[in-house]
Amino acid sequence: MSAAAVLIEVRLQPRASADEIAGEREGALVVRVRAAPERGRANEALVRLIAGRLKLPLAQVELARGARSRRKLVRVWGMDEGAVRRRLGMGPGR
């Protein structure tokens, strides 16, 4: 696993009709999850969705900031930024 982590800004929409990555808006990844924002369920769904898309174990994806906000920062360990952005369907890095 690489020592450096990749940080991803996320705009989360809970209570959506499906779990999906819906693109990018204003530099943030737009993610929709079916889970409600109660007892951390939407945050758990977010981490599971990103880990699944990146084909990483859950332990390598964590919520770094924004547990109670729609704007979040997700930390990914073990992949370089280019690979993360490609697998999540994001544009080139800044």
Q: Tell the overall outline.
A: globular
Span between termini: 23 Å
Radius of gyration: 12 Å
Topology pattern, helix = H, strand = E:
EEEHEEH
Question: Which range does the strand content fall in?
Answer: 25-35%
Give a short account of the largest sheet: 5 strands, mixed
List low-pLDDT spans: none
Strand arrangement within the widest β-sheet reads: 2-3-1-5-4
Structural class label: alpha+beta
Beta-strand segment tally: 5
Q: What's the pLDDT, averaged over the residues?
A: 93
Structure annotation, total helices: 2
**What percent of residues adopt helix (DSSP H or I)?**
10-25%
Keywords:
single chain; 94 residues; five-stranded mixed sheet; alpha+beta
Please tell me about this protein's structure.
The chain is of the alpha+beta class and 94 residues long. Helix content is 22%, strand content 34%. The protein has two helices and five strands. The protein has helices at residues 41-54, 81-87, and strands at 5-13, 20-25, 28-32, 61-65, 71-77. It has a five-stranded mixed β-sheet with strand order 2-3-1-5-4, covered by helices on one side. The longest helix has 14 residues, at 41-54. The chain is globular, with a radius of gyration of 12 Å. It starts with a strand and ends in a 7-residue tail after the last helix.
